[in-house]
């Protein structure tokens, strides 16, 4: 097995915070992941609370998962710029922002490292490590588009939270699950149990969720 990785996961104040739960669960479950460094922004907390009814002031991992924190998860205060991920010497293999608000993407695009999330993203770009922004907004305005272009030019990946559609998700959770599988595969953690297109004649459906 290749060296196990530390992955940084940031959750910011955009719709679809449930995706962060799917991604965090998948990262924790994956034997190739040694540690998940988790940061939830203030707006992220409010959005999770809004979308789930959970208490916004709870511990970050509990808030994202709706259950007690899992092993492997190290939570950082996004307002504390002295946290480990502020430094290029911190052993993070790469960073995912799920979901990524366009305000955050704009600050990252312009090097404004005002929070630990923005600083950690800045570090990923300067260290030439993977940075994946799962943006959620529609429609994009010209400023969004220019900022996202700038992130891509700096080496980051803009990975919008857009459903695949052609696997015909039967539930919203199937959309979350399919997206999560593809996202992990994209960062070099290929998954075995997923929908793979094999011609228009093959059935597209799949159903393997079961979460509450
Ligand atoms: C209910 C609600 C939904 C929001 N949804 C989005 C969204 O889908 N995409 C987005 O870019 N911003 C959205 N926002 C705005 C962001 O939360 C805001 O720009 C915030 O500053 C994001 O930065 P932060 O997570 O670093 O605090 C939403 C705000 C609220 C209150």
TrEMBL record:
This is UbiX family flavin prenyltransferase. NCBIfam families: ubiX_pad (TIGR00421). Pfam families: Flavoprotein (PF02441). It comes from Streptomyces carpinensis. Residues 6-174 form the Flavoprotein domain. Keywords: Flavoprotein, FMN, Prenyltransferase, Transferase. InterPro entries: Flavin_trans-like, Flavoprotein, UbiX-like.
